[in-house]
Every structure is written in C-alpha cells, then in structure tokens.
Design brief:
The complex is a heterodimer of chains A (329) and B (352). Chain A is mostly helical. Helices cover 70% and strands 1% of the residues of chain A. In chain A, strands 1-2 form a two-stranded antiparallel ribbon. In chain A, a hairpin with a 6-residue loop joins strand 1 and strand 2. In chain A, helix 10 runs antiparallel to helix 11. The longest helix of chain A is centred in the N-terminal third of the chain and has 38 residues. Chain B is mostly helical. Chain B folds into two domains: 92 residues, no CATH class; 214 residues, MetI-like (MetI-like fold, Orthogonal Bundle), CATH 1.10.3720. Chain B is flat. The chains are: A mainly alpha (329), B mainly alpha (352).
C-alpha cells in the first residue's frame, strides 16, 4: 500500500513498472520464483529424459557388434552382443500405419457427427461417451483384444488372404493367423480413435459460425457446407489430430505386447505375425534382460522417445500455426 | 420439364426440388436388414460380421442410387456422407460397449468378498481364489503420491503460464507441455529407472512408480489448470489489484478459488488416466504377491500390474482373476471420471 500512495521522490525516479509496486514485494518475488521454477522444471524434465536415456544406452551401443539400424536379431546378452532396431522400426511403423488408415477417417467422422450432425442437446453426452473410450486402460484393451476380439479378426484375416492373397501384403505363408500385425493395428486403431476425434472435434467447433451459416444460406447441402466451409478452415487442426493419434499409436505398450506375437523377424504379410513394436519389446524383454540387454532396451526406448518427440513437435507446430490465420473471421 | 409444366398447369409453385419421401430411408433400412438376415441364414458365409457388412452396403448403394435418380447428384452425395458419418459413430461406440459389457460379465463372475480382501500370497496360479487387495492398496498409494508430487508443480506451472509468462520462455514451456502429453508411458518408466534406480537413489518400489506416474500426470494437470485460469474474468484480477492487493494474494485468494472446481476436475481426470498405466510400473515397481504398505522399500503391486501378472500366467483361474482385476480397475477409473464430470458441472465457476 505504502509504495502506491507515496509520491515519487527524487531518490525514486518514476518508472512505468514501479507504479503497481508489485515487483518489489517479497511475497510476489517468491511466488514468481516458484511458478517460474515449476515451468522451467518441465523443460528440465524433458532434457533430463533425453540425457539419462542417452547416458544409459551408451554401453549397449559400444558393445554392439552389428549395425543397429539394419540388424534383424535381438541378442544383446549374447557374447558378442548383437542387436538392431530394424524389426522394431518395421513393426512399430506398419502397425501404426494400419491404425491410422482406419482411425483417422473414422475419427474425423465421429468429430463431424458430434459437431454438425448430432442434435445439440445430446452432442456433449455423445462426446463424453467417446472420451470414455480414452479412459479405458490399455491393459484392458489388450485383455479384451486377446480373448474376445481376436476370434473375429482371425476369420477376417483368413478371408482376406483367401480372396486377396494374390496381393503379397495379404498372403499368409506361415499359416499363423493369431496375434498378427493386422490384429495389433486394429486394436491400436480403436485406442487412438478418441485422440483423433477429440482434437478434430475441438477444431471443428472453432469454425466461425458465420462461414457455416453463409454456406447453408447459399443453398449448400450439409456435406457441401462441410467441404467448403469446415475443411478448409480446420485442415491444419485435422492434420495434427492425425499426427497426435500417430504419436499415441507409436508409443502404445501393453495392448500391443498382449495382441502382437513376439516373433523377432520382418514379415510383410500383415495377416501373419512378424515384427514387433519398440514399446512392446521393452515390456516383454525387460524381465529376462541382463546388463547389456537392459542397456539395449533403454537404447530402443531412446529411439522411440525421439520418434514420438518429432511426431508430436511437428503436430503441435502445425496446430500452433493455425492461430495466425484464425483472426480472419 | 414435365414437372415444371405440370406445376404451371395446376398453379402451384414448388420452391424445392424433388425429394425422396420421408419414409424412404427407413424402408430401405428395413430392406437392407432383411438382406442381411437372408445372408445370415442362407449359409453363404459363416463369418461373424459379414451379414452386417452386407446389409450396410445394400443400404449405402440403394440410398445413393435412389437419391441420385430422384434428387440429383448433390443430394445423393450429401445422403451418402450423412450415412457414413452416422456409421463412424456407431463403429466407435461398438467396441466401447463390447468392452464394458465383457469386463462386467467376466469380472462379476469372480467378484466376491474374498477376492476384494484377499491377496495372492501363497496362491498357486492354477488354483482359484486369492484376491487383489494388495494391488488395490498399491494403486491407491502410488497414484496418491503421484498426485501429491504433480499437483503443486502442475498448478504452479499453469499459474506461471497464465499470470506471469510472457515471451520466449513461456512459449517454450507451453510448447513442451503439449509435447510432453505425447511421451510414451514406457519412456517415463525408463527415465525413472535410469535416473533414480540405476543411480541408487531409490530401489524398485512404489515411490519410484509414483514418480513415473507423476511425469505422465504433469502435462495433463498443467493444461487443465491453464484452461481454467484463462476463463477467470480479468475484472476480478483488476478489481483486486486496483485495491492494492499484491499479485500473489490475488492469485491465491481470487483466481485459484474461482477456478478450483475446474482444477479439481483436471486433477481427477489425470489420476484416472495414470491409474490404468501398466508399462511404467513394470519397470519401476515390479510385481508383488502380498500387501506392501511401504512405498519406499520393496516391490509393490498395483491393479494394472496385477492384471498383467495374471494374464501372463495363462491358467484359467489366473485369467479369471485378471478379468476381476479389470473390472475393479475400470470401476475405479469410471468413478473418477464421473466424479470429475459432476464436480465440473455443479461447482463450475460463476463467470461474470
């Protein structure tokens, strides 16, 4: 109080920041320090994750006798240690691509339904239901997928390879249908649906009401309105919704560990097992790994961390650019 | 042309084009279901979902063709899009209901007072019996500690972003909070393992698990709190500041109380999110078969790792126990979700 009512004297030259007097209070200074510190803690944490994972994966990289990018076996505890990420890259990327191909269009559809098709009164409840899908823990997806979903996926996979088997992707030479790459992709698709739909729904709801109503007033059908007014406005948001879904699919651990067979080889036939994912491989091999084995798994975790970091940073960068042109409405 | 002249003859003017009658889609839907049933019982295919897919295709093609002939291309496309959009929603709800129903039925079959109060101590995986008390206690302790760590840091970081943060630093923090929400949970587990367990600061224990969960909670809490603080009306802050109240008191006494219900909702949602995490706990707490109240020393069970342990044992009795654990876990998460929902609805800040 005193600092505000005191007129500026000769010793205290008037400066614009000094009027409120807030910067000189001890309580304010501590509080600013605490909250700034907490903010900086986030940055430190991210840097810390990278530093510790790099530090602990150095032993694996120095002892590995194979090229980590091309080697297709995982024997880090053998003498000499041999391991590589090729199978993991393959499994992670192929299962995620299958998940994206299914979940992205369906996720956009759900978001459109809630934003433009469902009656306004029930829309928020329906949105809550879809969000509930995100609340189901991944281990329950795995348990359900393993015992209840797979019996339906196996005949579908058999049908695919029987009628479309001339496409190498759908053939099945090992004649194994359970725990296939397709199975993992389908479970991942269900798991990333809420991510894709929640973010694209948010973006759709930001489309200026004026644009929507103008399109409808000019006689556009609802679909034409969506194509001409909604999609152009929300394209960056839709792209980053898909990429955030991809980020989730890449890092999903337990569900994939349960529904994807742990064979360590590359097989392009998606109706059969083949390939493994970075995250699932860590969970499955952790218990039996020796010192170099753990270090190798930490190294694979480091690779996964950087992949998801790049995907997420790109997604956030794309969506943050949106703010630049949203002022146009 | 024929219509136009007919209209002129009768003197009535139609401003709209020709449309399908209101009952047409329903009739077509009924016909499609009929075709689906025909496929089901004629034995053309034995595949579980095939009749449904056939029925849906018949409806899609039939409606688009009929609409294309009567109403023209634009309306046909619109109807096609509408049907597809409705279908996507059903496709999303189907697995949700399927999972919830399966977990409820399978879980109830093993639920009993003994299951809720017993532990897995001295229980052979092949035998029925045992319980999840040790796992439930572990989850409560780990999630509780994680919240104690993450809530103050998260709320303070959100306060920084809303009340103080300007310029490059605030932008970087905000950006990396968003990026942090996408960190795979197993990476959080690996980080705690390398930073705290390998360095000897902690042993594999509930506390180590709680640290890993706290990392996953932090960005969720920051985002939720930030959103809530931003909708607190600026007039409240300005009014208080004009009365000479220091900034820190304005935040603690005016801004936070106004937004408290939203902050609690965000915290509960973040707890619900991490309560089901398995992967980081596998690396930090390990599996345990008996109750351990001490988070600092010794391995500690939790509901997700209990389910994982039972599935990997593979016997019928063990998998049944896994379903029981799944029901307990899903109820725990749903109670948190519903609670968060109620709090945000009934104690919402009264803006302006």
């Amino acid at each position: 109080m005193a600092t505000i009512t005191q007129p500026p004297t000769q010793e205290q030259p008037l400066d614009p920041d000094g009027i409120a007097g807030s910067s000189v209070r001890r309580g304010d200074r501590t509080f600013l320090g605490l909250s700034t510190g907490s903010g900086i803690f986030v940055l430190v944490l991210m840097a810390g994750i990278a530093v510790f994972l790099i530090w602990q994966s150095i032993p694996a990289f120095t002892e590995n006798t194979a090229n980590p990018l091309t080697e297709q076996s995982w024997l880090p505890d053998a003498d000499p240690p041999v391991f590589g990420f090729a199978v993991l890259f393959f499994g992670t990327i192929v299962t995620s691509i299958i998940a994206m191909l299914l979940a992205v269009p369906i996720g956009y559809g759900i978001a459109l339904f809630i934003a433009f098709y469902a009656p306004a009164r029930v829309a928020s409840i329906l949105g809550f239901l879809v969000d509930l899908l995100a609340a189901v823990p991944s281990i329950i997806f795995g348990l359900w997928g393993l015992y209840y979903f797979m019996p339906y996926v196996v005949p579908a996979a058999e049908w695919l390879s029987q009628y479309l088997g001339w496409i190498p992707l759908f053939a099945n030479d090992p004649e194994i249908w359970t725990k296939s790459i397709l199975m993992a992709g389908l479970v991942l698709a269900i798991m990333i649906l809420p991510t894709v739909s929640a973010i694209s729904r948010e973006v759709f709801l930001q489309v200026p009401r004026m644009h929507v109503e103008a399109a409808l007033a000019l006689g556009a059908t609802r679909w034409e309105m969506i194509r001409m007014a909604v999609f152009p406005f929300s394209r960056p948001g839709m792209i980053s919704a898909a990429m955030l879904g991809l980020g989730r699919a890449l890092g999903e651990t337990i569900a994939v560990a349960l529904v994807l067979s742990a064979v360590f080889e590359i097989n392009w036939q998606i109706t059969a097992p083949g390939g493994n994912s970075f995250a699932a491989n860590i969970a499955l091999k952790w218990g039996e790994a020796g010192d170099v084995g753990r270090s190798a798994l930490i190294a694979s975790g480091l690779v996964l961390f950087f992949i998801t970091l790049i995907v997420n940073m790109t997604a956030r960068w794309v969506i943050s650019r949106r703010k630049d042109f949203s002022g146009a409405n | 042309m024929a219509i136009a002249s007919a209209e002129r003859a009768t003197g009535s003017v139609h401003l709209t084009g020709r449309r399908l009658p209101r009952w047409a889609p329903w009739a077509l839907a009924a016909a499609s279901v009929g075709v689906g049933l025909l496929v089901q019982f004629s034995g053309i295919t034995a595949m579980g979902l095939a009749p449904g897919i056939v029925a849906a295709l018949v409806f899609l093609i039939g409606q688009t063709t009929a609409s294309g002939i009567v109403e023209g291309r634009r309306h046909a496309v619109d109807r096609l899009a509408t049907t597809l959009v409705y279908t996507t929603f059903v496709l999303a709800l189907a697995p949700l209901l399927w999972i919830l129903i399966t977990v409820t039925i399978k879980g109830l079959s093993v639920m009993s007072p003994e299951f809720l109060t017993g532990t897995m101590r001295n229980i052979n995986p092949r035998d029925a019996g045992g319980g999840l008390f040790h796992a439930f206690i572990g989850t409560l302790i780990q999630v509780g500690i994680a919240a104690l760590i993450a809530v103050p840091i998260g709320v303070l970081a959100a306060i920084y972003l809303v009340e103080f943060g300007r310029g490059k630093l605030a932008y970087f923090i905000s950006f990396f909070v968003d990026v942090m929400t996408g960190i795979p949970s197993i990476v959080a587990g690996l980080f705690i393992f390398t930073a705290l367990i390998l360095t000897g600061v902690l042993e594999q224990s509930g506390l180590a698990g709680a640290f890993a969960l706290a990392i996953l909670m932090l960005p969720v809490i920051i985002r939720a709190t930030e959103e809530m603080l931003r909708i607190v009306p600026n007039e409240l802050r300005e009014g208080a500041l004009a009365l000479g109240v220091p900034k820190w008191k304005v935040v603690l006494r005016i801004v936070i109380p106004t937004a408290i219900s939203g902050i609690i909702t965000g915290v509960m949602l973040s707890v619900a999110r991490v309560a089901g995490e398995t992967a980081p706990l596998l690396l930090t707490t390990f599996l345990a078969q008996s109750t351990n109240f001490n988070p600092i020393s010794g391995s500690q069970a939790s509901l997700p790792t209990f389910i994982w342990d039972q599935i990997s044992r593979g016997t019928n009795a063990a998998v049944d126990r896994a379903w029981g654990g799944a029901l307990a876990l899903i109820l725990f998460v749903l109670v948190l979700y519903a609670g968060a929902r109620l709090i945000s609805r009934y104690f919402a800040p009264k803006t302006s």
